[in-house]
Design a protein that fits this description.
By secondary structure, the protein is an alpha+beta fold. It has helices at about 10-15, 30-45, 90-105, 110-125, 135-140, and strands spanning about 1-5, 45-60, 60-70, 75, 80-85.
Length: about 150
Protein backbone atom coordinates (compact mmCIF):
# COMPACT_ATOMS: atom_id res chain seq x y z
CA UNK A 1 0.00 0.00 0.00
CA UNK A 2 1.31 3.46 -0.89
CA UNK A 3 1.21 5.74 2.16
CA UNK A 4 2.31 9.37 2.54
CA UNK A 5 3.08 10.83 5.93
CA UNK A 6 4.05 14.48 6.07
CA UNK A 7 2.80 17.97 6.67
CA UNK A 8 1.30 20.37 4.14
CA UNK A 9 4.70 21.84 3.38
CA UNK A 10 6.06 18.36 2.58
CA UNK A 11 3.19 17.77 0.16
CA UNK A 12 3.72 21.17 -1.45
CA UNK A 13 7.47 20.99 -1.90
CA UNK A 14 7.88 17.24 -2.32
CA UNK A 15 4.96 16.64 -4.67
CA UNK A 16 4.32 20.07 -6.12
CA UNK A 17 0.73 20.06 -4.82
CA UNK A 18 -0.64 23.56 -4.26
CA UNK A 19 -1.62 24.11 -0.67
CA UNK A 20 -3.26 26.64 1.58
CA UNK A 21 -1.74 29.68 3.12
CA UNK A 22 -1.69 28.68 6.75
CA UNK A 23 -3.06 31.24 9.16
CA UNK A 24 -3.57 31.10 12.90
CA UNK A 25 -7.26 30.42 12.27
CA UNK A 26 -6.66 27.56 9.85
CA UNK A 27 -4.09 25.42 11.71
CA UNK A 28 -6.78 23.08 13.01
CA UNK A 29 -9.28 23.45 10.18
CA UNK A 30 -9.10 19.85 8.97
CA UNK A 31 -11.10 20.62 5.83
CA UNK A 32 -8.05 22.52 4.51
CA UNK A 33 -5.87 19.42 4.86
CA UNK A 34 -8.46 17.06 3.44
CA UNK A 35 -8.87 19.33 0.39
CA UNK A 36 -5.13 19.20 -0.13
CA UNK A 37 -5.09 15.43 0.33
CA UNK A 38 -7.84 15.08 -2.29
CA UNK A 39 -5.55 16.90 -4.73
CA UNK A 40 -2.70 14.54 -3.81
CA UNK A 41 -4.69 11.36 -4.44
CA UNK A 42 -6.12 12.74 -7.66
CA UNK A 43 -2.58 13.41 -8.91
CA UNK A 44 -1.19 10.15 -7.46
CA UNK A 45 -4.01 7.56 -7.65
CA UNK A 46 -1.89 4.73 -6.21
CA UNK A 47 -1.77 6.50 -2.84
CA UNK A 48 -4.16 4.82 -0.43
CA UNK A 49 -3.33 6.72 2.76
CA UNK A 50 -2.16 10.24 3.60
CA UNK A 51 -1.55 11.40 7.17
CA UNK A 52 -0.26 14.55 8.79
CA UNK A 53 0.07 16.17 12.18
CA UNK A 54 -1.41 19.51 13.12
CA UNK A 55 0.58 21.67 15.52
CA UNK A 56 -0.09 25.13 16.83
CA UNK A 57 2.73 26.60 18.88
CA UNK A 58 1.45 28.81 21.68
CA UNK A 59 4.93 29.12 23.21
CA UNK A 60 8.11 27.04 23.26
CA UNK A 61 6.60 24.72 25.86
CA UNK A 62 2.89 24.93 25.08
CA UNK A 63 1.60 23.36 21.88
CA UNK A 64 -1.77 22.24 20.59
CA UNK A 65 -1.47 18.90 18.78
CA UNK A 66 -3.72 16.97 16.44
CA UNK A 67 -3.56 14.72 13.38
CA UNK A 68 -5.57 13.70 10.33
CA UNK A 69 -5.69 10.61 8.14
CA UNK A 70 -7.24 10.01 4.74
CA UNK A 71 -7.50 6.27 4.06
CA UNK A 72 -9.20 4.87 0.95
CA UNK A 73 -11.55 7.85 0.75
CA UNK A 74 -12.40 7.94 4.46
CA UNK A 75 -11.44 10.91 6.64
CA UNK A 76 -10.33 10.65 10.25
CA UNK A 77 -9.10 13.21 12.74
CA UNK A 78 -8.04 13.25 16.35
CA UNK A 79 -8.94 15.40 19.31
CA UNK A 80 -6.73 18.41 19.92
CA UNK A 81 -4.37 18.00 22.86
CA UNK A 82 -2.69 20.71 24.90
CA UNK A 83 0.91 19.62 25.40
CA UNK A 84 3.52 20.72 27.92
CA UNK A 85 6.48 20.26 25.60
CA UNK A 86 9.92 19.37 26.90
CA UNK A 87 11.48 18.85 23.44
CA UNK A 88 9.50 19.28 20.23
CA UNK A 89 12.02 17.40 18.06
CA UNK A 90 10.75 13.97 17.11
CA UNK A 91 7.00 14.50 17.50
CA UNK A 92 6.37 13.93 13.80
CA UNK A 93 8.57 10.84 13.75
CA UNK A 94 6.74 9.55 16.82
CA UNK A 95 3.46 10.14 15.01
CA UNK A 96 4.66 8.20 11.97
CA UNK A 97 5.93 5.25 14.01
CA UNK A 98 2.73 5.02 16.06
CA UNK A 99 0.57 5.16 12.93
CA UNK A 100 2.68 2.54 11.15
CA UNK A 101 2.71 0.33 14.25
CA UNK A 102 -1.07 0.47 14.36
CA UNK A 103 -1.49 -0.33 10.68
CA UNK A 104 0.94 -3.28 10.60
CA UNK A 105 -0.70 -4.68 13.72
CA UNK A 106 -4.13 -4.72 12.10
CA UNK A 107 -5.69 -1.77 13.92
CA UNK A 108 -8.53 0.05 12.25
CA UNK A 109 -7.42 3.31 10.55
CA UNK A 110 -8.92 5.56 13.24
CA UNK A 111 -7.23 3.54 16.00
CA UNK A 112 -3.90 3.58 14.15
CA UNK A 113 -4.21 7.36 13.70
CA UNK A 114 -4.86 7.84 17.40
CA UNK A 115 -1.85 5.67 18.29
CA UNK A 116 0.33 7.86 16.08
CA UNK A 117 -1.15 11.04 17.51
CA UNK A 118 -0.68 9.80 21.06
CA UNK A 119 2.86 8.54 20.51
CA UNK A 120 3.93 11.82 18.86
CA UNK A 121 2.39 13.80 21.70
CA UNK A 122 4.06 11.71 24.39
CA UNK A 123 7.41 11.90 22.64
CA UNK A 124 7.42 15.69 23.02
CA UNK A 125 7.21 15.29 26.80
CA UNK A 126 10.62 13.54 26.93
CA UNK A 127 14.06 15.10 26.47
CA UNK A 128 15.62 14.21 23.12
CA UNK A 129 13.99 12.61 20.11
CA UNK A 130 13.94 9.00 21.31
CA UNK A 131 10.73 7.70 22.80
CA UNK A 132 10.49 6.49 26.36
CA UNK A 133 6.77 5.75 26.02
CA UNK A 134 5.55 2.23 26.61
CA UNK A 135 2.69 0.83 24.55
CA UNK A 136 0.21 0.91 27.48
CA UNK A 137 0.94 4.65 27.96
CA UNK A 138 0.40 5.33 24.26
CA UNK A 139 -2.82 3.31 24.19
CA UNK A 140 -4.14 5.08 27.32
CA UNK A 141 -3.47 8.50 25.81
CA UNK A 142 -5.00 7.42 22.49
CA UNK A 143 -8.20 6.46 24.31
CA UNK A 144 -8.50 9.89 25.89
CA UNK A 145 -6.02 9.89 28.74
CA UNK A 146 -3.51 12.60 29.44
CA UNK A 147 0.04 13.13 28.21
CA UNK A 148 1.34 12.78 31.76
CA UNK A 149 3.92 10.05 32.01
CA UNK A 150 2.56 6.97 33.78
CA UNK A 151 5.11 5.15 35.93
Amino acid sequence: MDVLIGNEEDLQTGLGIPGPEMTAKSKFDTSIFFEMIERVVKEFPNVKMVATTLREVQSANNHRWGAVLWADGNKYDTPKAELNVVDRIGGGDGFATGLIFGMINGRQPEDALRLGWAHGALLTTFPGDTTMAKLPEVEAFAKGGSARVQR
